[in-house]
Design brief:
It comes from Romboutsia faecis. The protein is built from 18 helices and no strands. By secondary structure, it is mainly alpha-helical. It has one domain. The chain is globular, with a radius of gyration of 21 Å.
Length: 447
């Protein structure tokens, strides 16, 4: 007999607020960790330090990406399994995910500590930035395991009716990061190493909060019960694989743009792109928060065959996404100079380049929210292939196509227009995939 929880009974609009709002805030808070590093480094160390943090982003995304693959795949699988009333199987999924996550994170730690300089070179660090990039990679790698487990535990908290804990952990995390950045960078002048320690410690503090309900042996999901079940590994990894593609996409975008701007304007160009990527990241994280928040609602009700509730949460998501996109466009288009100035300090060259680029980049917000929700929806219902297609299109395929073609047509403007181009093309593909997989068709294969 199935045991109902609020995901299958409470009013959808209430669930959307209860789950998406904390998810949005938490996602933004966690995502701005490196932005906080950039603000402190840009103002108290210099543009080269800020550029170094941006070059490190692909390695940072390796940690976050692998965490999200397992976390999203795990929560989607657990949500549908609990919706079907299979508590024992859900517990086994969680136990297996914890073990796999720990092993993968341990490997990343080893790679970062031993091969940090090699990784820095691969990521495009020149002689000026090599040492600082290597230091950041080596230091951040030490925190790979607690960072990864924080994401996993925080996401699983949502499906056991504790969505607020991930938010509370994120608040503690950002407060820790700000305090440590101030002490380590401004006061102790530890520069890039201090920034990495602050980021790693902030995620570790959040772990203490998110693990609490999972220590309760009476909880439907906890760290004590269950057993390792290798048969669950592939469904978890496959189902969360679109998140891996998203991480690869973020890393690809950072790499491609870093190479383009390094060629055009050297370290100054990368610093300009970094300031815009920080600002745009804030908006994109809001969209990801919406997607993450509705994920447990969709997966549980999809497993419980309540497709009308899934439709309702999608409709609300579309309306909110459109509104948020319009607001973000207006903010970046109208107030780009003030926002960019937070990261560039008194460097007028970086400021002017970034301000001009922000007005073109802003058009991406009309489409990226829909694309993120589409991808999250397919992951939640177990259709990883469609989610992968959307993630790959918006972050890899059309980014590469755009960066190869658009600059030849409109020069530097083409670089800034690459992301809006990729989001628009993906939006068109996303609509076709959603129509193809409407419930009139998916309900036939939902069991």
């Amino acid at each position: 007999m199935k045991q109902e929880n609020i995901l299958g009974t409470e009013k959808i609009s209430n669930l959307f607020i209860k789950y998406s709002l904390p998810a949005i805030i938490a996602m933004v808070i966690n995502g701005v960790q490196t932005i906080i590093d950039g603000i402190f480094l840009g103002n108290f160390v210099g543009p080269n330090a800020m550029a170094s943090v941006n070059l490190v982003q692909p390695f940072n995304q390796l940690i976050i990406g692998t965490s999200m693959i397992i976390s999203i795949g795990c929560i989607s699988f657990i949500g549908r399994t609990l919706g079907e009333g299979k508590k024992k199987e859900a517990q086994n999924i969680f136990k297996t995910s914890v073990i796999v996550m720990s092993l993968v994170s341990l490997i990343i730690t080893f790679l970062g500590i031993i091969f940090n300089q090699n990784i820095a070179v691969i990521l495009g660090a020149n002689e000026v930035l090599l040492d600082s990039v290597s230091i950041y990679i080596k230091t951040l790698a030490i925190f790979s395991i607690p960072m990864s487990l924080m994401f996993l535990f925080g996401f699983v908290d949502r499906v056991i009716e504790k969505p607020e804990l991930y938010l509370k952990g994120s608040i503690i995390s950002v407060m820790t990061n700000i305090i440590l950045n101030y002490i380590l960078i401004k006061k102790l002048q530890l520069g890039i190493r201090g920034a990495a320690v602050a980021t790693g410690m902030s995620f570790s503090m959040a772990l203490i909060i998110t693990i609490v309900p999972l220590l309760n042996k009476n909880s439907v999901i906890n760290i004590f019960k269950g057993k390792f079940d290798k048969s669950t590994i592939w469904p978890v990894v496959y189902n969360g694989s679109s998140e891996g593609v998203t991480a690869i996409a973020i890393a690809t975008t950072a790499f491609v743009f870093n190479m383009a701007f390094m060629k055009i304007a050297g370290e100054i160009g990368i610093a300009a792109f970094t300031s815009i990527s920080y600002i745009s990241q804030f908006g994109t994280l809001i969209m990801f928060g919406i997607s993450d928040g509705i994920g447990p609602i969709i997966s549980y009700n999809y497993g419980y065959q309540k497709h009308d509730r899934v439709d309702d949460v999608l409709k609300i998501s579309y309306k909110v996404t459109l509104l948020v996109g319009m607001i973000l466009f207006a903010i970046l288009f109208l107030f780009g100079r003030s926002l960019v100035g937070m990261f560039t300090g008194s460097n007028t060259d970086v400021l002017e380049m970034a301000v001009n680029g922000s007005k073109l980049y802003a058009f991406a917000f009309f489409f990226n929210g829909f694309n993120i929700v589409y991808s999250g929806y397919f992951t939640a219902i177990g259709k990883a292939k469609e989610s992968i297609i959307i993630s790959a299109c918006r972050g890899i395929i059309f980014i590469i196509i755009g960066i190869l073609i658009l600059p030849m047509v409109v020069n530097l403007k083409g670089v800034w227009l690459t992301v809006p181009f990729a989001e628009l093309m993906t939006f068109i593909i996303g609509i076709k995939l959603m129509n193809k997989n409407s419930f009139a068709k998916t309900s036939k294969t939902a069991a």
